Known about the structure:
Blueprint: E1 46-50, H1 54-68, E2 76-80, H2 91-96, E3 104-107, E4 114-117, H3 119-130, H4 138-168, H5 174-197, H6 208-221, H7 238-248, H8 251-258, H9 278-281, H10 284-290
Parallel strand pairs: 1-2
Antiparallel strand pairs: 1-3, 3-4
Glutathione binds next to helix 3.
Amino acid sequence: MTEPxxxxxxxxxxxxxxxxxxxxxxxxxxxxxxxxxxLPVGRHPLQLYSLGTPNGVKVTIMLxxxxxxxxxxxEYDAWLIDIGEGDQFxxxxxxxxxxxxIPALLDRSGPKPIRVFxxxxxxxxxxxxxxxxxxxxxxxxxxxxxxxxxxxxxxPYLGGGFGHFYAYAPTKIEYAxxxxxxxxxxxxxxxxxxxxxxxxxxxxxxxxxxxxIFAWYGALxxxxxxxxxxxxAVQDYKHVQRWTDRLLERPAVKRGRMVNRTSGxxxxxxxxxxxxxxxxxxxxxxxxxxx
Length: 291
Ligand SMILES: N[C@@H](CCC(=O)N[C@@H](CS)C(=O)NCC(=O)O)C(=O)O
């Protein structure tokens, strides 16, 4: 194994602002707002403040699935939060999510707005509000929630662990990459074994557990995350591949993946969504052509 550089931690850690690397603008050891900024509010009952990352995509897929089921109360405005620019530290955003991370949802359909943060909590809130994509029977419901919480607990090892050290850290540290590659491959194997015995994650029905896990592990399986498809030999996880392909055929999954997206093909980026017709008229290619 290659030697990591020598580092002896001091007695008390201090914030060295110069060492923030790629995320210098966003990473801070303190919470709270950095500036005053109200959030915009659109005309729909649900206001989503987000970005097209795996955690953001979970919610836009869920909302598009609910609309596809005919749940008109799930109409939403999706506003773009540019986390690279620090929008998540604006006072309005912090009021909706004190943890300063996308996605955050404001339900304005009742007498008093309800805030929901943490993508897993948002999926559960929407599933309960609209009575969809969450089994009602105790056994299947427990299975669905177990996998939903599995995703919430596991993905930080994929994103914050593997993804960070493999793709973003300023130096390649063999110990860290090795540790997290091992864990991510173990997680892929957990999913592959589950999907070898079950059509969807929680059983025969498509649920919020599929949506949550697809956003991270489906994207990893398709090579969209961290340029790591070959390194992790993702093609070997045949059942994960089969399940991912199946989800990718769903029109709501296709639409949900476009919302708040700021990279990739211009025709796949619908940076803000305020109406169902925006998919046909407001993607970046259409906006550029109109200028
Ligand atoms: N556990 C949270 C994680 C959310 C999260 O990490 N969001 C990232 C983007 S995917 C973010 O907003 N990062 C901005 C920051 O850390 O300042 C959830 O599932 O909602």
